[in-house]
Amino acid sequence: MSDSAADREGDATAPHVSTVPVRPHRAQTILILGVLGFVFAPCGFAGVWLARKDLRAMAAGTMDSAGENLTKLGRMLGIAAGIVWTVKWAILTCAGLIVYFNWSTIKQHL
After folding, report:
1. In 3D, which of 81, 15, 12, 8 has the Cα closest to residue 44?
2. Which residues of the chain carry a pLDDT beneath 50?
3. Where are the chain's structural domains?
4. Would you call 20 helix, strand, or coil by DSSP?
5. Which of 27, 46, 105, 110 shows the smallest number of beta carbons within 10 Å?
6. Which secondary-structure segment (H or E) carries 32?
7. Counting Cβ atoms within 10 Å, is residue 73 exposed (0-12), middle (13-18) or buried (19+)?
Protein backbone atom coordinates (compact mmCIF):
# COMPACT_ATOMS: atom_id res chain seq x y z
CA MET A 1 0.00 0.00 0.00
CA SER A 2 2.92 2.35 0.57
CA ASP A 3 4.00 1.96 -3.08
CA SER A 4 0.65 3.18 -4.37
CA ALA A 5 0.64 6.12 -1.96
CA ALA A 6 4.11 7.11 -3.19
CA ASP A 7 2.93 6.84 -6.79
CA ARG A 8 -0.02 9.13 -6.08
CA GLU A 9 2.13 11.75 -4.39
CA GLY A 10 4.75 11.69 -7.12
CA ASP A 11 8.49 11.49 -6.91
CA ALA A 12 10.17 14.74 -5.83
CA THR A 13 13.20 14.03 -8.02
CA ALA A 14 11.18 13.43 -11.20
CA PRO A 15 11.17 16.36 -13.67
CA HIS A 16 7.92 18.28 -13.90
CA VAL A 17 6.25 17.87 -17.28
CA SER A 18 3.96 20.71 -18.28
CA THR A 19 0.51 19.70 -19.42
CA VAL A 20 -0.20 23.11 -20.99
CA PRO A 21 -0.03 22.81 -24.79
CA VAL A 22 2.54 25.15 -26.32
CA ARG A 23 1.71 26.79 -29.65
CA PRO A 24 4.38 26.74 -32.37
CA HIS A 25 6.19 30.01 -33.03
CA ARG A 26 5.62 32.12 -36.16
CA ALA A 27 9.11 33.57 -36.37
CA GLN A 28 9.60 32.92 -40.10
CA THR A 29 6.29 34.57 -40.95
CA ILE A 30 7.13 37.61 -38.83
CA LEU A 31 10.60 37.86 -40.37
CA ILE A 32 9.16 37.73 -43.90
CA LEU A 33 6.56 40.37 -43.01
CA GLY A 34 9.31 42.59 -41.59
CA VAL A 35 11.34 42.34 -44.80
CA LEU A 36 8.27 42.86 -47.01
CA GLY A 37 7.51 45.98 -44.99
CA PHE A 38 10.21 47.81 -46.92
CA VAL A 39 8.25 47.22 -50.13
CA PHE A 40 4.67 47.25 -48.85
CA ALA A 41 4.18 49.20 -45.62
CA PRO A 42 1.19 47.28 -44.16
CA CYS A 43 3.29 44.10 -44.07
CA GLY A 44 5.77 45.76 -41.73
CA PHE A 45 3.03 46.94 -39.40
CA ALA A 46 1.46 43.47 -39.39
CA GLY A 47 4.87 41.96 -38.56
CA VAL A 48 5.32 44.31 -35.61
CA TRP A 49 1.81 43.53 -34.33
CA LEU A 50 2.29 39.75 -34.62
CA ALA A 51 5.75 39.94 -33.05
CA ARG A 52 4.40 41.84 -30.06
CA LYS A 53 1.68 39.23 -29.52
CA ASP A 54 4.10 36.31 -29.97
CA LEU A 55 6.79 37.73 -27.67
CA ARG A 56 4.18 38.18 -24.94
CA ALA A 57 3.01 34.59 -25.45
CA MET A 58 6.62 33.34 -25.34
CA ALA A 59 7.21 35.22 -22.09
CA ALA A 60 4.03 33.70 -20.64
CA GLY A 61 5.16 30.22 -21.70
CA THR A 62 2.21 29.52 -24.01
CA MET A 63 4.27 29.65 -27.21
CA ASP A 64 7.46 27.87 -28.26
CA SER A 65 10.33 30.21 -27.46
CA ALA A 66 12.75 28.64 -29.96
CA GLY A 67 11.95 31.41 -32.48
CA GLU A 68 12.35 34.32 -30.07
CA ASN A 69 15.44 35.78 -31.74
CA LEU A 70 13.94 35.64 -35.24
CA THR A 71 10.72 37.15 -33.89
CA LYS A 72 12.69 40.04 -32.38
CA LEU A 73 14.57 40.51 -35.65
CA GLY A 74 11.31 40.57 -37.62
CA ARG A 75 9.91 43.14 -35.18
CA MET A 76 13.00 45.34 -35.59
CA LEU A 77 12.79 45.10 -39.39
CA GLY A 78 9.12 46.02 -39.28
CA ILE A 79 9.87 49.05 -37.12
CA ALA A 80 12.72 50.09 -39.43
CA ALA A 81 10.43 49.70 -42.45
CA GLY A 82 7.83 51.89 -40.77
CA ILE A 83 10.44 54.58 -40.13
CA VAL A 84 11.64 54.39 -43.75
CA TRP A 85 8.07 54.72 -45.04
CA THR A 86 7.36 57.66 -42.73
CA VAL A 87 10.50 59.52 -43.85
CA LYS A 88 9.79 58.67 -47.50
CA TRP A 89 6.24 60.04 -47.31
CA ALA A 90 7.40 63.16 -45.48
CA ILE A 91 9.99 63.87 -48.18
CA LEU A 92 7.51 63.22 -51.00
CA THR A 93 4.88 65.41 -49.36
CA CYS A 94 7.33 68.27 -48.86
CA ALA A 95 8.64 67.92 -52.42
CA GLY A 96 5.10 67.84 -53.78
CA LEU A 97 4.14 70.96 -51.87
CA ILE A 98 7.27 72.78 -53.05
CA VAL A 99 6.63 71.83 -56.67
CA TYR A 100 2.95 72.73 -56.43
CA PHE A 101 3.48 76.15 -54.91
CA ASN A 102 6.43 76.98 -57.18
CA TRP A 103 4.43 75.92 -60.24
CA SER A 104 1.58 78.17 -59.13
CA THR A 105 4.00 81.08 -58.80
CA ILE A 106 5.51 80.39 -62.23
CA LYS A 107 2.07 80.21 -63.87
CA GLN A 108 1.10 83.56 -62.33
CA HIS A 109 4.13 85.29 -63.85
CA LEU A 110 3.50 84.00 -67.36
Report:
1. 81
2. 1, 6
3. 23-109
4. coil
5. 110
6. helix 27-36
7. middle
